[in-house]
Design goal:
Rossmann fold; about 30% strand; globular; binds S-adenosylmethionine
Amino acid sequence: MKEWDTIHKEKWSNVNEEPDPEVVKLIPILMRNGARDVLDLGSGAGRNTLYLAKNGFNVSALDISEVALERLKEKDSSIERVHGGMNSVPLDDSSLDFVLCTRVIQHGIMQEIRTAANEIKRVLRPGGLVFIIVPSTKDPAFSTGREIEKNTKVDIDRPDGNMPHHFFTREDFDDIFPDFEIVALTERDRISTFNENRPTCSWDFLGRKK
Ligand SMILES: C[S@@+](CC[C@H](N)C(=O)[O-])C[C@H]1O[C@@H](n2cnc3c(N)ncnc32)[C@H](O)[C@@H]1O
């Protein structure tokens, strides 16, 4: 989608290259679970993809933006890059041990979010793990912009604010991920590097496919 290419070029040409601290903390959990085949869904320029690769996982990066994937290629051309969308992941059923999806599935109306969640379920092996970061209704940006569907806004106060953003409640997780055991679910205040270092509030969800 060209809009995401424009955002990567104009707003995120210089985003943080460090892996997400929550992803760093996940590594021992993934190792204990014997995870090997991993997808970074909505990888962006691949800061977390690169960290997973460095830690020995067989990781692929999928993103809707060719610009983002090209940036990853410049850093490490050996990582498999998949140009595609979260609503139709071009990977086989039950082919992965872990899906990482940080700050991505909020970008859609609820029907698209449900489809993405089903795609995550489809590509995971039974017992596979998913880790998701999405904005909470306590995020300051939730009070800005225009509502296009319940808790889904556009024109919010964000560099990518013209794209849809769904703000999640605790109940959303039971609703969207009924086939996952909730291993951990935490609502966290943090500073977002994608959001010009402004305060945000988001959910971290670690789930296991039943
Ligand atoms: C805020 S960035 C997060 C990047 C990365 N996951 C991270 O945490 O550093 C959101 C990413 O989702 C991608 N994206 C947006 N909509 C998508 C979709 N429908 N399918 C796949 N990727 C998408 C964007 O191109 C962008 O790279």
